[in-house]
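ok here's ABC transporter ATP-binding protein, seq below lol
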Amino acid sequence: MEKVLEVNELHVSFQTYGGRVKAVRGVSFDLRKGETLAIVGESGCGKSVTSQSIMRLIPEPPGTIDSGSILFKGKDVTKMKEKELRKLRGAEISMIFQDPMTALNPTLTIGDQIMEGIIQHESMPKEKAKQKALEMMNLVGIPSPEARLKQYPHQFSGGMRQRIVIAMALVCEPEVLIADEPTTALDVTIQAQILDLFRDIQKKTGVSIILITHDLGVVAQVADRVAVMYAGKIVEAGSRREIFYQPQHPYTKGLLRSIPRLDIEGEELIPIAGSPPDLFSPPEGCPFAARCEHAMEVCDRVYPFTSALSKEHQVDCWLQDSRALAAASMK
Ligand code: SF4
Ligand code: MG
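and the structure came out like this:
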């Protein structure tokens, strides 16, 4: 399948008073046309920084893309100038965030806000832009769009506001939509509706979606492929089936044990004990070693190689790697 986006060995860090935080430490993945890739992990694992780097939205400084490349249709986003980035943002890659209220301007009608993007990027005449806005409102399921065009954000419910934000993100027909915790602020019923909407939009427009979330329930509903991040690295990646039914990394297994599943009754939920390592001076070996019940001597010293388990499925864990023994005698 055609690749829309290719991230190679991305390293991102932030200068803070306490030193440099290595937030993203060698992340590689690709995004294919029309698919939904979920990036999951606990807060602070680097998933948001990764996605913001794709649009160059991290503040530089204190943030820096230290190395690696982000290829969008063959062009490296890490090398783009501000002018190119302005064209890219919104028109080709678009992003929506957790809280719809922060994305909306309370003093403008939603019609004006949906139209703003197209008028800015495509210098479309206002009447045509209005037609486009109506079309978008239909697409995202806002009833009686003609009447609601003139209303303000506070006149909409939380779920409707998130639909408006999605309409704004899609109005320029971007190839990639990045959604960072898009349903976290919504209650469960509305959350399910918004996830349905994502699937529906994808079917109609062919947009490729990167979904950033800490919630495996959300992943199960919409993702085609899943990348699990821990301490700034992708520790396991695979198809949704592989990640949910044949997880191999002890961290992925831990995440799955810590969420309620509808198909297992009376199961016990087990949180993962301990906390992620400090990213000021990340461990040389496997960053999960301090929390891992299978940790071996080699794990503390050497970061595992990536093992390919199938065409899609890969994992960074010594348990999967026959080279562990050789590595144990390294150094
Ligand atoms: Fe556990 Fe070692 Fe695998 Fe890391 S590499 S997850 S410490 S077994
Ligand atoms: Mg985040």
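fwiw The chain has a mean pLDDT of 91. kinda neat tbh
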